[in-house]
Structures are given as C-alpha cells and as structure tokens.
C-alpha cells in the first residue's frame, strides 16, 4: 500500500486530496513516454521552442497559504486544498495544477510569482495567507496574473473558526468567475457542496490529514483520534470514514501500533470504516480509493478486489493521480506489466512531475531487465525531487549494474542520508551495492542492521539485504532472512529481480516461489 508509494515521510500531501487537471482516462494500452525527455529529465526538455507557448487561458495554480503560527498550518493547507479541489470540479473550463507540483515549485521560487507561473505553465496564481485575530482568523486571498503579477481579484475575510468552513466555496466561486466568467447553475451548485455541515468535524479531518501526511507512528495514532472525533460530531461524514479507513490500513501496512490494537484488528477497523463510507455514499471516490488500499492489505498475495476499487475511484474522479498510481502498482504485482505501465503513464499525464510515479516506472523497467530505461526514469525522479530517497536508492543499484560503482555508492549513501532515521530500505540497498563493490565488511554490517531489526521490517528491505548476502556468498543467511518475510505480492515481485538469478536453481528458492504462487 504505502510501500507502493515509497514516500514514507516524503512531502505532505494530505489524504485524500490529490488534485490535477482532468483528462480522459483509459487504462487500456501502454501510453507513449511523452513525459520523458531524451536525456532522462522531465519536461521541459533541453531543446526549447523558438518562442514561448502561452499558458492556457483559464489555467491556475493555488499556492499553499502562508501562516506565521505553526499551530495553524493544518488550516492553511486545508483551505488551500479545498479551494484547489473546488476549482478542479469546474474542469475543463478551469485547469488546476496538482498541489504536489505547486508545493515543489512554490518552495523553489518563493515569492517569485512570475517564476511560479512560468514553471507551472499557468496564466493565474492564487496567493493567500491566514493569521489569527482576537475574534477568529483573517484570511487574505488574491488572484494574480502571473505574467505581470497584477492582481485580477482580491479579498480579505474576517471569520470565526466556525466560519472558515464556508470560505473555500466563496473563494472558489469568486476566483472561477474572475477567470472563466459567469458560472452555469449546475456549476454553482457543484461549488456549494460541503463535506460536512459541522465546522468542528471539518477541522478534525483537516488536522488528521495534516498529521497522517507526516507518516510517523505517533502522528498516525493522533490522526486516527482526529478522524474518530470528526465522526462523533458528524456520523454521516463520508470523508472522515474514508480517511479513518486509510489510516488504519496504513498502520497495518507499516506494522504501526495504534493503541493496543493487533494487526488483524487494524485491518478489521479499516474495512469497517471504508464499508461505512461506501454505505453512506457509493459515489465517493475517496471511499473507493480507501477500499482499494484496504482490499490490497486483506489479500496480500492476490490483491483481490483492489484493482476494481481503484478503477471505480478513478471513474468517479478522473482528476486524481494517486488512485491511478496505486492501480499501476497493483497491476504490476499481479503480473500485468503493460497495464501497470499504462497506469503509471496516465498518472504522469495527470501530474507530470510526480517523483514516485517516475520512480516506479524505473522500478518496472528494472524488473523487466531494461536497465538503461530504468536509469532514465530514475534520473527524472531525482531531477524533479532532489530530496526523494526512493529514487536514489534504486538508482544506486542501477548505476552499480551499469558499472558506475562510485556513483552507485554515492546514490545509496544519499538515500540513507535523506531517509532521516527511517532508513532500513536505503540501508538494505546500500548493503547490496557494497557487497557487489567488494566492501564485504560494511555490506555484512548493513545487511545485519536490516535482518536483525524488529517490528516494522518491510519485505523490500529484507529482499535487498538477502540479495546482499547472496552476493557475499552467504546463502544460508539470505534464505533465513527471506523466510522471515510475509508471503505477499511484494516479495514475489522482488524475487523476480536479476539480483537473485544465481539462486534460482536452489531448492529453497523454488520452495519460496511455490509458496508465493510464482515464479
């Protein structure tokens, strides 16, 4: 599940708010790799057109609202994402950039609205800020024409805490009319939709999303409490149930402790929450996406029911790249390589600079033994997100296989550094690189760090540590490590990598394949 995202601790995209420009979706055949430049970098490629292409007339990026009080960061992010989501409902009249792309560019070009507009290819930028006042909050919002930084519309709102719930629809409507003109009655109705009528419940969900996006056990436990508080206030709050189901499934995936709940109890609660969300609204894309994750966790070898759930989420809201990406991972682990690659390309069509999807295209190419192609995708992921450990980790392996052992070692070490204390996966890859480059002592030490770890040990980390032990000639230790892994689609997938080729004739390897339903 989250391992499929490979993004633990990376970024802060809140669940379930991945918003992108709407395009037709067809997961039916591989899509040309138009998102990839010949030199391996993402667009814009090195060869520039003779003249700049004007951005679409009604295109906009919603910058994350600023706040000087860290206690209000969850509100600033939640308002931003609600406004982006509302504008996204007006597609194709209004084109909205994905928040994850906006966050990256906003960080790189702080205060430079022209630069933000050029980098994102949008005509308009929404800029805003939130601060506390004695009576509540003051929220300032303006719509800026990026080319010359002139203000096309602006408003300051003084609201109580309860009044913030009504702010995103008001801002969305004003901005949409400034960009695209008078809205049709149906569009106006769409913008008045609110996830709940209870402002306090809404705030609990915003805070829970903010905490869960940090991807730590402690934050996840607090996020669960926030979602449950929201449900106590509004027992019909679909998004709260969907978020709660996702949180429990995520905790199950990472073997986190939520109170005294067992792993099976986490999964039961995930299923109960997602089932309730679907019972309340079978047309909720968030609920179906949460159901896809939960079903994936329930059937780790077959992922039964996960792909149909993700497809239903995509059908209901084709603007969100995350369910498309998760569908790609599910299909890849089920052996449908072409369907998986098509899904990954479609996710990039929705969000062209999505580092985890670029990385998983590299992963898919590497699994198919296309090492040079894998390197190009991983170079792209590093180019768009220089602090993303997942891309460095696999690129270290790929560079080593290509003969660039010094570069491979640098990438593997960088993955460990960027993982910031959550480095079992990166340490395992480093162990393999060291084993192959004949640094046996360090390789054995790093492999032991992984194989001796207790609690939340992931199959991918164990697989790479085992591969390192194979390279060191210690097959007994390698198989002992592999036999610790849960039997699931991830382990089956990793055993298909070429780093295990020399062990395939071993009866213990064939026994593992049989148990996993492989090869």
Features:
globular, 519 residues, 24 helices, 5-stranded mixed β-sheet, Serine Threonine Protein Phosphatase 5, Tetratricopeptide repeat, Rossmann fold, 57% helix, alpha/beta, 3 domains
Describe this structure in words.
Helix 7 packs parallel to helix 9 (238-253), helix 16 (371-384) runs antiparallel to helix 17 (389-401) and helix 18 (405-419) runs antiparallel to helix 19 (424-436). The chain has 24 helices and five strands. The chain is α/β, with parallel strands linked by helices and 519 residues long. The protein has a five-stranded mixed sheet, sandwiched between helices. The longest helix is centred in the middle third of the chain and has 18 residues, at 263-280. The two termini are 22 Å apart. It folds into three domains: 1-44 and 198-372, Tetratricopeptide repeat domain (Serine Threonine Protein Phosphatase 5, Tetratricopeptide repeat); 58-181, Rossmann fold (3-Layer(aba) Sandwich), CATH 3.40.50.10610; 387-519, Tetratricopeptide repeat domain (Serine Threonine Protein Phosphatase 5, Tetratricopeptide repeat, Alpha Horseshoe), CATH 1.25.40.10. Helix content is 57%, strand content 7%.
Number of strands: 5
Structural class computed from helices and strand pairing: alpha/beta
Largest sheet: 5 strands, mixed
Summarize the amount of helix as a percent range: 55-70%
Topology as H/E string?
Answer: HEHEHHEEEHHHHHHHHHHHHHHHHHHHH
Broad shape: globular
Ends apart, CA distance between termini: 22 Å
The third-level CATH topology of the largest domain is Serine Threonine Protein Phosphatase 5, Tetratricopeptide repeat
Fraction in beta strands: 5-15%
CATH architecture of the largest domain: Alpha Horseshoe
How many alpha or pi helices?
24
Q: Which strands sit side by side, in order, in the main sheet?
A: 2-1-3-4-5
- Sequence stretches where pLDDT stays below 50 over 5 or more residues: 4-35, 43-51
């Amino acid at each position: 599940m989250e391992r499929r995202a490979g993004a633990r601790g990376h970024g802060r995209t809140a669940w379930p708010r991945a918003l992108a420009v709407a395009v037709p979706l067809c997961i039916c055949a591989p899509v040309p790799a138009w998102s990839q430049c010949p030199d391996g970098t993402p667009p814009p490629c090195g060869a520039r057109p003779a003249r700049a292409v004007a951005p679409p007339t009604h295109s906009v990026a919603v910058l994350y609202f600023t706040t000087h009080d860290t206690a209000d960061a969850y509100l600033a992010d939640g308002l931003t994402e609600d406004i982006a989501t509302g504008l996204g409902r007006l597609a194709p009249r209004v084109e909205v950039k994905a928040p994850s792309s906006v966050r990256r560019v906003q960080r790189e070009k702080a205060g430079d609205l022209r630069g933000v507009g050029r980098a994102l290819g949008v005509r308009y930028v929404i800029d805003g800020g939130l601060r506390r006042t004695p009576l509540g909050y003051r929220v300032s919002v303006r719509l800026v024409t990026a080319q010359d930084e002139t203000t096309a519309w602006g408003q300051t709102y003084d609201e109580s805490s309860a009044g913030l719930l009504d702010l995103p629809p008001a801002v969305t409507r004003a901005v949409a009319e400034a960009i695209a003109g008078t809205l049709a009655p149906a569009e106006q109705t769409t913008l008045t939709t609110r996830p709940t009528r209870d402002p306090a419940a809404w705030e609990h969900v915003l805070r829970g999303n903010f905490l869960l996006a940090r991807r730590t056990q402690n934050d996840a436990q607090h996020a669960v409490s926030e979602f449950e508080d929201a449900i106590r206030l509004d027992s019909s709050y679909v998004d709260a149930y969907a978020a709660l189901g996702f949180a429990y499934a995520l905790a199950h995936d990472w073997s986190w402790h939520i109170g005294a709940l067992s792993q099976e109890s986490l999964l039961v609660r995930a299923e109960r929450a997602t089932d309730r969300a679907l019972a309340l609204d079978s047309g909720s894309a968030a609920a179906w996406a949460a159901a896809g994750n939960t079903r994936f966790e329930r059937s780790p070898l077959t992922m039964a029911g996960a792909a149909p759930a993700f497809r239903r989420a995509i059908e209901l809201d084709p603007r969100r790249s995350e369910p498309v990406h998760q569908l790609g991972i599910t299909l890849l682990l089920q052996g449908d390589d072409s369907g998986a690659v098509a899904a990954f390309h479609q996710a990039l069509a929705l969000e062209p600079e999505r580092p985890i999807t670029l990385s998983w295209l590299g992963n898919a190419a590497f699994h198919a033994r296309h090492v040079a192609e894998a390197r190009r995708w991983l170079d792209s992921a590093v180019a768009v997100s220089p602090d993303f450990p997942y891309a460095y980790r696999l690129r270290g392996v790929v560079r080593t296989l290509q003969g660039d052992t010094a570069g491979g070692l640098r990438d593997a070490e960088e993955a460990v550094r960027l993982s910031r204390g959550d480095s079992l996966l990166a340490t395992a890859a480093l162990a393999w690189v060291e084993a192959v480059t004949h640094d046996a002592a360090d390789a054995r030490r790093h492999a032991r760090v992984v194989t001796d770890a207790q609690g939340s040990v992931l199959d991918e980390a164990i697989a790479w540590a085992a591969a390192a032990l194979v390279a060191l000639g210690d097959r007994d230790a390698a198989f002992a490590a592999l036999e610790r892994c849960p039997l699931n689609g991830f382990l089956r997938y990793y055993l298909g990598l070429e780093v295990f080729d020399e062990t395939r004739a071993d009866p213990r390897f064939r026994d593992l394949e049989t148990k996993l339903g492989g090869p």
